[in-house]
Amino acid sequence: MKVIEGRGAAPGCVRAVVRRCADGAVSAVPRTVDDRQAEAEKLRRARADYAAALSRLRVKEADGSPAADILDAYREILDDDVFFEPVVRRTLSDGLNVDFSLLREARETAGLFAQMDDPYLAARAGDITNVCDALILRIQGAVPSDLSAPAVPGEKWVVFARDLTPDAALRMDRSALAGFVTEQGGLTSHTVILARSLGIPAVVGAPDALEAAVDGETVLLYGDTGRVILDPDEAALAAFRRDRDGAEQLQAACDAAMIREAATLDGQRIHVCVNLGDSGADLPEHCDGVGLLRTEFIYLGADHPPTEEEQYRHYAAVAAQAGGREVIIRTLDIGGDKQAEYLALPREANPFLGCRAIRLCLDRRELFLTQLRAVLRAGLSGNVKVMFPMIASLKELREAKALLAQAGAQLRAAGTPFRGDMPVGVMIETPAAVQISDALAWEADFFSIGTNDLIQYTMAADRMNERVQYLYDVCSPAVLRSIRTVARNAAIAGIPVGMCGEAAADPLLAPLWCAMGLNELSVVPAQVARTKYAVGRVDAGALRARLPGLLDLDGAEEIRTALAEIQREYQTMPGSE
User: Fold this and answer.
1) Which residues are annotated as a binding site for phosphoenolpyruvate?
2) What GO MF annotations does this protein's record show (predicted)?
3) Which of 86, 180, 327, 517 could disulfide-link 202, Cβ–Cβ 3.0 to 4.6 Å?
4) Cα 226 from Cα 15, distance rounded (Å)
5) What is the pTM of this model?
């Protein structure tokens, strides 16, 4: 038996077998090249290839999730022409191989970042190194470790590596992936982010883990404490079984709630739906439908504007899989952090406040009409609804609805069947939409609150900037009062209101959403059971009387303390009593 002590980074315990990802350290030696232009072109092709790979992974992650944020950060580095320009210049002027020029530039820049006093900026050194290493491997035509499907059906792996990049995750069979152990990386590394996003345990900073591990041997991984036990003896296995049994007992309560409709103790029905970013993703049997189908994956995963027929097939497939359950299709939300090169979108100084989402769609109407025709046709395949993102004015909503009607007229003229009475929703994610939600409610059939952007815009705090993370908090009184305002205005107009941001799945906040009168919570598939359990423990009417006092507290910290007491009172998570 061998015991390795690292840093616990993502919670959970698992028994699996070792799978080593023993890629060597990236290196490059200088050499003279004959065709300098062709050599520089290798970098351009590698960047385009890596960008496409990151985009395919990105669209499968929920907007605002930790995994999405780190992938966005990698894409930002990859798109930085200023960073890569000296590499191209050196290759053209010195006649040296581009992989060596890139390695030198990456190490110099990462070294500068690593020396900075600011922890956030210092942590970016690892991101720069990983992005450039992935490009160098592509330039060199290196073959990465094989992390395809396991030879033994049902086998579960704990992957051991020096470090991992998002590109490495693309090669993994996620059905087999049970945990990570890395020699490098900190608690905020991309490895940890991916592990938490996938709901699997992780240990980082485990010295000599690759040398100690043997492919195929049994490993016990404790993501809470950082302990890794290789080839465990009977005593270690017995202790693991006790730990696992305790965790399974806690989970059993959530599993029992999974098969029931979610309703509060006083009978308030809450629909628990899922957020999807890929039409090929499985829809859980016991959810109430798709509360958010992100359509960016079709655009970001293509090298051309997707046709009406291509989009229709994707949307209709999800609607058919839902079997009559709700499917809310959010129209295109590209711009800001999400770019499709073939659209040739102009660079903007502040893209999050620029021409993105509904603004882009109203600017490029033919692109929008193509999508709307596909959505209307897919409406005949199930209970489909359409939702417009980033609405900030009544004019935008009315123009979007007029284009939806125009798309229907085009289909009718062509003799193409479509759903003519499709419900239209508004995604509430800007302070402007909150302020006019009373007016929007009379023009829309439903609301869905996107907390990720709503927090960011309300608090004027970039959710990817650790220096202002103290502001990016859903429990801020400003954010919670905004959500209450939207819920009230929806109730007055008699339309349902849901939530599809990360906050929808937080069991600490579930009592709050029930008390505010939300009708639907849309979460990632892995969180359906936990959300249903939390809803089922709450007396919404009793909590509603406590809302004014709760929202009058001074700040996010005080509100969280009060919510923690409510969680203990109602036991909205197993073991929270």
Assistant:
1) 294, 330, 452-453, 463
2) kinase activity; metal ion binding; phosphoenolpyruvate-protein phosphotransferase activity
3) 180
4) 14
5) 0.68
